[in-house]
Specification:
8 strands; alpha+beta; Archease, Possible Chaperone, Chain: A, domain 1; 39% strand; five-stranded antiparallel beta sheet; three-stranded antiparallel beta sheet
């Protein structure tokens, strides 16, 4: 995988669960890459043909940025596992008041390979770096 210095993610070795390190130049790119990393870890195989896309808006509030990230990823994970939908994030905003608003475009999928049960708070800490932000996220499988 080619690393983009401004935004991206990589899977890390973890003894029992799945873990990714995510980085981004700002919180919006960090949240986008966290969502992309989670979807990649789940192993979405292919989109269902002949089903039109769905537009959805979500709004989330939390006590801090870590909580906001967890709630955002849990919302996307729920839609993946319960509705077999994967979403492209068309617009995303994250405010200093710990609110997130997103416009999503979803597509039905046929299946996914890994069953992620939850996004955990284990060692979750959004860190400021010289290039922006970074976080490690552990997923319970």
């Amino acid at each position: 995988m080619i690393k983009d210095k401004k935004a991206g993610f990589e899977e890390l070795a973890h003894t029992a669960d799945l873990e990714i390190r995510v980085w981004g130049k700002d919180l919006v790119s960090l949240f986008r890459q966290a969502a992309a990393g989670m979807i990649q870890l789940s192993g979405v195989e292919e989109l269902e043909e002949g089903i039109s896309s769905v537009q959805q808006n979500i709004s989330i509030e939390a006590m801090d940025f870590e909580g906001l990230l967890i709630l955002f990823l849990e919302e996307l994970l729920y839609r993946l596992t319960e509705d077999y939908m994967v979403y492209e994030i068309q617009k995303l905003s994250v405010t200093n008041e710990y609110t997130l608003k997103a416009e999503l475009k979803g597509a039905q999928i046929k299946s996914y390979q890994r069953d992620i049960k939850a996004v955990t708070y284990h060692n979750l800490n959004i860190r400021t770096t010289a290039d922006g932000y970074e976080v490690n996220i552990v997923f319970d499988i």
